[in-house]
Amino acid sequence: xxxxxxxxxxxxxxxxxxxxxxxxxxxxxxxxSEGNCYWNVYVGPGAGAGDCARYAGRLDGSAxxxxxxxxxxNMADVRSYxxxxxxxLYLHAYRFQRGGYRLIETLACKRGGDDKLECADxxx
Length: 124
Fold this sequence. Notes:
The protein has one domain. It is about 0% helix and about 50% strand. The chain contains no helices and nine strands. Strands 5-6-7-8-9 form a five-stranded antiparallel beta sheet, with no helix packed on it. The chain has a four-stranded antiparallel beta sheet with strand order 1-2-3-4, with no helix packed on it.
């Protein structure tokens, strides 16, 4: 997602462990008042992209966290944090499948009295 008058910022990360960072770019003018943004991911050669970088999906959230688990092409799963209202947030899990990042799981969470994160799925 890019606006007509973008304020672009990059947060490139090596998501497949090949030593070359994938391009991750956000248009800050589209971020919400809670700090949530729409991060566009582009992959280069070696991740099913051919000779040039290509769009590989959007990650929604205020922060991104690459995980140890992997999807296709050795691409790291990514967790994002989406700030909601009254101390609530959503944890989104994305996996690289069939050439792009796809949302595979969402957990509803809130901050407990001890500032511990309490999520609807007690296993996570």
